[in-house]
Amino acid sequence: MNILLTHAAQLLTLRVASDNGGPRRGPQMRELGIVEDGAVLIADGKIIAVGTTDEVTKEKRLASGFLEEIDCSHNVVLPGFVDSHTHPVFTAPRLIDFEKRISGATYEEIAAAGGGIRSSVGGVRGSSSGELASHIVGALEEMASQGTTAVEAKSGYGLSLEAEIKSLEAIREASAQWPGSVVPTLLGAHVVPPEYRDHPDEYVRMVCEEMIPAAARRKLAEFVDVFCERGAFTMEQSRRILRAAIQHRLAVRAHVCQLTQVSLTPLLEFHPVSLDHMDFVGDEDVAALAKVDTVATLLPAANYFLSLHSFPPARKLIDSGVAVALATDYNPGTAPTPSMPFVLSVACTHMKMSPAEAITAATYNGACALGRRDTKGSLELGKDADIAIFAADDYREVAYWFGVNHCRKTFLRGIRRSGPDA
Predict the structure, then answer these.
(1) Which of 227, 252, 223, 224 lies closest to 237, judged by CA?
(2) Which helix (H) or strand (E) holds 390?
(3) CB 90 within 8 Å of CB 158
(4) Using CA atoms, how far apart are residues 383 and 60, in angstroms rounded to an integer?
(5) Burial of 54 per CB tally in 10 Å (0-12, 13-18, 19+)
(6) In the 8-state DSSP scheme, what is residue 411?
(7) Is 60 exceeded by the pLDDT of residue 421?
(8) Potential cystine with 51: which of 55, 77, 115, 312 (Cβ 3.0-4.6 Å)?
(9) Domain at 2-79+379-418: CATH architecture
(10) How confident is residue 109, by pLDDT bands cut at 50, 70 and 90?
């Protein structure tokens, strides 16, 4: 399919003048590479021309065969969102948690009462991989309808060798049914399952010696993640898990500093692509992160849903030179939203990110957080045709409106998904 998008009010290319090939940071996060009256030419799922409508129209000959032209007047065209932190392998919402939280119970109190992550385990263990895949596909389609074209998908609600491998198989099955890009992550180290509550180190041993090798051998995961936090896994346990991942040639990432502050130095030794949540990151760690390509992925939808008074320190991180990404944290307990535009809105209103910074964090830096910056995150020659079209005249409207979906169309490697008004 050859497609020509023309007359965009604003085309956000995300090209920058001084690109060093790594994640964007500091002032670069405000550079959107805006082209007025912009156009994009797509052929075979790739971008083959970008520029003004006059410039790109002259290049139509590059697309052989039938060419569909789409008028994007009064629309903002930007790279598809890269949602670099999601937990889509579950079967049901956690409504009891929701009500308990409204009544004043804390995250940890809910977990101690049998709610939280562990309450989703039964549904995953009792479902087939096909049933799980069906739910994942539904979530991916919801994400696409709001402009998302690439998604990191974690396991983590099985918490046994069989159920975690089944979850990863479901992710693979779902990714084959969706035209976007899905990056699988093994999160067997989400929390210690009930049957290992009194023997957590034995569970860590199983993750390291059985679960990670099985996922690596079957090529079911690209990353291994660990929840390094009070009530989940200690730093020493987390390091054992990440070391096992590296030994099996899997890249690593971590949930960290969500509820409490810990030193990041022991984790940075493993060169994580991303460290996620980061609500309580310390000053020394901020300075260390500014010197490396590890992305700080912030998940403000979780803070919103948990009714927290504080949010991740985006301004401090960005102003210190840390590369920041945004993601939904889509999950049944703390962030039941597929909407990246909502996350942008929360990032601007509660974390004081500018709309431009939020868009960079949700596109190019999200791609960096998945090791996909060569193919995703910007509209440039040769990259995948992952594109979102919003019914707006100004890019700031993407973060301005909330509770509504203004995504008109999404292209996932050149394959169209229509929004609510198409």
Answers:
(1) 227
(2) strand 387-390
(3) no
(4) 18
(5) exposed
(6) E
(7) no
(8) 55
(9) Roll (2.30)
(10) confident
**Would the pTM of this model clear 0.90, i.e. be above it?**
yes
d(CA 332, CA 115): 11
Question: What is the distance between the alpha carbons of residues 371 and 306, in angstroms, rounded to a whole number?
Answer: 30
Q: Are the beta carbons of 148 and 387 closer than 8 angstroms?
A: no
Q: For the chain, which residues make up each domain, given as ranges?
A: 2-79+379-418, 81-368
pLDDT (tens digit per residue) in 291-339: 999 999 999 999 999 999 999 999 999 999 999 999 999 999 999 999 9
What is the C-alpha to C-alpha distance for residues 371 and 381, in angstroms, rounded to an integer? 18
Decide if 110 contacts 100 (C-beta within 8 A): yes
Which residues are paired to 251 by β-bridges? 223
Model confidence at 117: pLDDT above 90: no
pLDDT of residue 59: 86
Q: How confident is the model at residue 418 (pLDDT cuts 50, 70, 90)?
A: confident
The whole-chain average pLDDT of the chain stands at 95
How are strands ordered across the β-sheet holding 295-298? Answer: 81-86, 148-154, 181-189, 223-228, 251-256, 274-277, 295-298, 324-326
pLDDT tens digit string along 77-99?
A: 999 999 999 999 999 999 988 98
Tokens representing 186? 């093994």
28 neighbors 323 (Cβ within 8 angstroms)? no
CATH architecture of the domain with range 81-368? Alpha-Beta Barrel (3.20)
Same CATH topology for 2-79+379-418 and 81-368: the answer is no
